[in-house]
Design a protein that fits this description.
This protein is an alpha+beta fold and about 240 residues long. It has 3 domains: about 1-55, RNA-binding S4 domain (Structural Genomics Hypothetical 15.5 Kd Protein In mrcA-pckA Intergenic Region, Chain A, Roll); about 65-125 and about 210-244, Alpha-Beta Plaits (2-Layer Sandwich); about 130-210, Alpha-L RNA-binding motif (Alpha-Beta Plaits, 2-Layer Sandwich), CATH 3.30.70.1560. It is built from 6 helices and 17 strands. The protein has helices at about 5-10, 15-25, 115-125, 145-150, 190-195, 225-244, and strands spanning about 1-5, 30, 35, 40, 50, 55, 65-70, 95-100, 105-115, 130-135, 155, 160, 165-170, 175-180, 200-210, 210, 220-225. The radius of gyration is 21 Å and the shape is elongated. The mean pLDDT is about 90. Bound molecules: uracil (URA). Uracil binds near residues 188 and 189.
Length: about 240
Amino acid sequence: MERLHKFLARCGAASRRECEKIISQGRVRVNGKTIIEPGFTVDPEKDKIFLDEKILKPEEKIYIILFKPRGCVSTVKDPQNRLKVIDLLKGIKQRVYPVGRLDYDSEGLLFLTNDGELANFMIHPRYEVEKVYLAVLDNIPGKNDLERLQRGIMLDDGKTSPSRVKVINEAAGKVLVEIRIHEGRKHQVKRMFEAAGRKVLNLKRVKMGPLELGRLKPGEYKILSEKEAEELKKGIMDEHKGKA
Ligand code: URA
């Protein structure tokens, strides 16, 4: 049995919260009867569930790795009407959501899916999915600052959890560093380096958990095969079991 609003969301009707509203508006019928009760549960295998006269079936799960280019937003809606990552996906029927964000001017790996359970695991700091970024800085961080960044550095929303930072090269006054973090606070990498007195000139996410950008170019994406998706889910869920 499953709560009706969850089932609606799983069918791609809207977000869970929106689906609660849709139910309260009397737009959903289960086996011919209009349901407005918030906690109503259904049997997705047996019940006939209609939204506005349209029968609902759970969406097929889809898992997408996108190379988000700079100059597009990773939100599903944008009040300023800028290019959105979902505008880059062609011919995908399912409603997918970005798992975690990248800033408008950041690029790199963005994972999109309609699998809410897996998405929750991937963004929850408790499960510590590692994210790897390459950042171009205006100057090399000193030894002390590198240590502070790695131990945890104080930001205005609290101290960060430990990270790993490696200077990769330094040329013409610019420095390329790799940083590995497990959290996903807003503008986190930029704020961490800023707290260490450095400016991030370019930021690219290259890894998220077991997912990698591979040969993708900006704006390109790939849909995971069923086998890859199964491996991803299994790997992440198994890891979580150890930590939960
Ligand atoms: N940290 C940032 O500062 N920006 C991003 O886009 C991602 C991580």
